[in-house]
Amino acid sequence: xxxxxxxxxxxxxxxxxxxxxxxxxxxxxxxxxxxxxxxxxxxxxxxxxxxxxxxxxxxxxxxxxxxxxxxxxxxxxxxxxxxxxxxxxxxxxxxxxxxxxxxxxxxxxxxxxxxxxxxxxxxxxxxxxxxxxxxxxxxxxxxxxxxxxxxxxxxxxxxxxxxxxxxxxxxxxxxxxxxxxxxxxxxxxxxxxxxxxxxxxxxxxxxxxxxxxxxxxxxxxxxxxxxxxxxxxxxxxxxxxxxxxxxxxxxxxxxxxxxxxxxxxxxxxxxxxxxxxxxxxxxxxxxxxxxxxxxxxxxxxxxxxxxxxxxxxxxxxxxxxxxxxxxxxxxxx
Amino acid sequence: xxxxxxxxxxxxxxxxxxxxxxxxxxxxxxxxxxxxxxxxxxxxxxxxxxxxxxxxxxxxxxxxxxxxxxxxxxxxxxxxxxxxxxxxxxxxxxxxxxxxxxxxxxxxxxxxxxxxxxxxxxxxxxxxxxxxxxxxxxxxxxxxxxxxxxxxxxxxxxxxxxxxxxxxxxxxxxxxxxxxxxxxxxxxxxxxxxxxxxxxxxxxxxxxxxxxxxxxxxxxxxxxxxxxxxxxxxxxxxxxxxxxxxxxxxxxxxxxxxxxxxxxxxxxxxxxxxxxxxxxxxxxxxxxx
Lengths: 333, 289
Known about the structure:
The structure holds 2 protein chains of 2 kinds.
Chain A: H1 13-18, H2 28-68, H3 88-95, H4 97-128, H5 135-141, H6 144-147, H7 150-160, H8 167-175, H9 188-216, H10 220-228, H11 233-262, H12 265-270, H13 282-292, H14 296-311, H15 314-320, H16 322-326
Helix pairs in contact in A: 2-14, 3-14, 4-9, 4-11, 4-13, 9-11, 10-11, 13-14
Chain B: H1 3-36, H2 40-43, H3 58-65, H4 79-110, H5 116-126, H6 131-144, H7 151-175, H8 179-187, H9 192-203, H10 205-221, H11 224-229, H12 238-246, H13 253-273, H14 275-283
Helix pairs in contact in B: 1-13, 3-13, 4-7, 4-10, 5-7, 6-7, 7-10, 8-9, 10-13, 10-14, 12-13
């Protein structure tokens, strides 16, 4: 999470690894063989990872692009390839109301989640950076939602939002806000709110802890100086603290975005995409196209929409991670 | 109010706010634990009980011995078998992640290789790729090479959660090891492999534990690959077991909740024994899902 400027040492090739050896008494041939030995070892250490990345990421992504241009049927799965279909699959998903709905829902779901997760997470991060009894304990428990299997989270919220016997309705009735059970999971609009609420709950630990650790890195002198200059709490936050932690805010929102467009288990466990496809996201509808009706081509086309959406932020992510990217052996020497 | 009183009041207010936040954060987990001990009659009575009401172990008996009256889909085994399956998948994911990630992270931090920037960029981008995209293609690829419905297929797929993250976290850790350490071993005549095994790995223990905890939780909690790569016969992890209990029309809440609570056990254990490693991993910018 460090976004400090890169500190690439302009080390000449010969000193990169050779400098480690005492130069006196070692001939250039010995140094070369040491360098070669290390290159070979480095490559061998890296080979399993490269093989894995090619198999588990590159192959599926490329194959998914191929599939999206093919006319697939349950029978073609065994053949690995299917007849070329041109843009038919893409035409389908951009005309199919459920696919279009899923794309729109994904946008609204992501924007809504990030907005509330950020506000709540930031508020809690600020709370935890104040001194009060029990704050360490509270902070250690805040990560609970993040540890649960996502399908379990979905199931839990399904239980809480039941119309009859659900805790949410029970609370609302006890307080007197409603007199008839609210049909959280049967009303299309309310069902969308339930997946949003569950996802916000799920993301709070991540936002809170990342922003909290950023707040800890704000130098005390800076905060004190702002107090001496007569800045009120709101001014200090807006003019001093937020600008300092802005890089972390960016990374947090970016990663939050990446989490949220992928959400699948939660929705399957909570609403299953219903009622009337009101909570269908790109992920859940793509699953439906590929694995329920076996239109792998259409599912793949929808997957590619999701992939483009997710990868839009990858240049920004790489740029924010540039410090870590350029770091290599010798950089800190 | 004096200054002292004011600061005391403020601290009390903070504690109250934190308690309120914790109630909201923890209530869903509390509710499912209490619910898992309720009888079927209580669960379908239309009333939610805030405190345990006529606690019973029936739900746990049902799920651990297999079978459930309300289940629509065929549940192949009892949840106790599924727990074992999930444990195997979790441990398999840990093994795969460590075998692939530890040497790779070492190579990417302590060797000057031309591909370093490319591989690290690829890892950062790989974390972004949604699992459903991988699942669709991997299903067909596994189908093609006859691996559908096998442990290796599921573990290979679950590695996608853990491996990029593991390499990046371990790499950041390896940067903190001084280069002199490896160089001294080389001068003493140790091979690259010996240096890695005897010096680097022992020093990396805490980072390796962090990565292992995350890999285990990823394998244990995986649902999307279990749903797509397994065909529902033979191998059934607990996450899939819970999903099958949901049924299409009526949900057997007692069975669902008892299974869900069982699925929470590893997370609970980790929270108690590996708290330190989890906090480290979470702030290291992990990507889940």
